[in-house]
Amino acid sequence: MKKPTLLIIFGTRPEAIKMAPLVQTFRNDSSFQTKVIITAQHREMLDQVLELFSIQEDYDFNLMKERQTLESITTGVIDKLSQVILQENPDMIFVHGDTTTTFAASLSAFYHHIPIAHVEAGLRSYDMQNPFPEEMNRTLCDQITSLHFCPTKQAKENIVQSSVQSSLLYVTGNTVVDSLLWVVSHIQNTHPSLLEQSAANEKRILVTLHRRESWGQPIESVCNALRDIVLQNSDVRVIFPVHKNPVVRESVFSCLGDLANVNLVEPMDYIHFVAEMKNAYLILSDSGGVQEEAPTFGKPVLLTRSVTERPEGIRCGVVKLVGTQYNNVYKELHSLIHQTSYYQAMVTSENPFGDGQASQRIQNQVRQYFGFEPAHSCLGEFTQ
Ligand code: UD1
Ligand code: UDP
């Protein structure tokens, strides 16, 4: 009997980090033929992850262009994936989250009547402009998905409320926690010195910013708040791996490029970024993945967005929505730096997003879907 063929497709850094444990799980499962497609919507930032997790792709669409448009990624993915679908005749296509790669790959799978497994399904901000265009991408993808792998109960509830048709709705936890736990133990085994705390008298603020809806003035307001905090607090150091997007880089370098206590660096490989999260005093970010990782280290996250599709971090107190206006960002940074009780109230060691077993849960459900025995039969749904 022919083994079912699974295609796993992704294109950006965060998708790669979150799909890496699934690639490993399915490539180790001899019941399936598993093929990896990278669209390379990102190039350098994707390649960093592929190298760390030793992922050898079967197809590389090599799509990234400097200052690419949403249209060029969308049409490029559909065009190239349809050719691979015709060649491989897959039984299932795995997509992740909410990028343009995700949306375009789902549409292509749908056109060819291939069942879609959506990993990190069900996240909703209920605001189509925030984040843009991700809310549209994931909402439309969920409409045509067969197997919804929801990271949390809330995400599953969002899909139930939207009454989409589905073969399967299952709460798995987020695969990012699988990756994170693997990387932490990898660091402990291979680079333990990276986990040593920074100088006791230094407060490190780890920063990432990239969201499309914050380009220009909002990112500049956040950077100006950071600028004043650094100028007024000699014990504060900002570590800022700047996203490769030239629109983001122009704003960040012009606001912060001249300050000695601000390290503007290239995107870090995942090992070094995880070590920086562990060593940070606090994190300022608009990232989706960082919201899900920071609770593992109990680090307060100031989230420079107006809304989040990941309310679990806010509920457990470790993430705070601060928007992008100068006054609010400055005030929150100042309070966390100067008020111990304010800081301690945001420190928590529980991670509501996953327990490190998401990939195994997904594998079990996929095995059952194809009529195989589950590989780890005692695993139920993730319960947060
Ligand atoms: C994309 C995703 C966003 C995700 C983010 C993760 C969409 C619409 N956006 O946003 O959901 O949160 O990735 O980081 O899918 N670039 C490089 N090298 C790289 C990566 C990017 O030079 O390795 C530059 C290129 O000039 C590229 C630009 O960044 O054109 C924008 O990349 P793109 O993937 O379109 O958007 P992101 O803002 O990265
Ligand atoms: N990350 C990384 N190096 C960096 C910055 C972030 O490896 O310099 C990781 C981070 O730990 C998280 C992911 O990249 O897992 C988040 O990516 P990003 O913020 O670009 O995208 P989002 O999660 O917002 O879609």
> How large a portion of the residues is in β-strands, by DSSP E?
5-15%
The separation of the N and C termini measures 39 Å
Architecture of the largest domain in CATH?
A: 3-Layer(aba) Sandwich
Q: What letter string, H or E per element, gives the SSE order?
A: EHEHEHEHEHEHEHEHEHEHEHEHEHHH
Structural class: alpha/beta
User: Quick one: biggest sheet?
Assistant: 7 strands, parallel
Main CATH class of the largest domain: Alpha Beta
Describe the structure.
It is a single chain. The chain is of the alpha/beta class and 384 residues long. It folds into two domains: 5-174 and 355-369, Glycogen Phosphorylase B (Rossmann fold), CATH 3.40.50.2000; 199-344, 3-Layer(aba) Sandwich (Rossmann fold), CATH 3.40.50.2000. It has 15 helices and 13 strands. The chain has helices at residues 13-27, 44-52, 70-88, 100-111, 134-143, 153-162, 175-190, 217-232, 246-256, 270-279, 288-297, 311-315, 326-338, 340-345, 358-369; strands at residues 5-10, 33-38, 59-60, 92-96, 116-119, 147-150, 168-171, 203-208, 236-241, 262-265, 282-285, 301-303, 319-321. Strands 3-2-1-4-5-6-7 form a seven-stranded parallel beta sheet, sandwiched between helices. Strands 10-9-8-11-12-13 form a six-stranded parallel beta sheet, with helices on both faces. Strand 1 (5-10), helix 1 (13-27) and strand 2 (33-38) form a beta-alpha-beta unit. Helix 3 (70-88) packs across helix 4 and helix 8 runs parallel beside helix 9. It starts with a strand and ends in a 15-residue tail after the last helix. The model has no long low-confidence stretch (mean pLDDT 96). It binds uridine-diphosphate-N-acetylglucosamine (UD1) and uridine-5'-diphosphate. The site of uridine-diphosphate-N-acetylglucosamine has 23 residues, from helix 1 and helix 2.
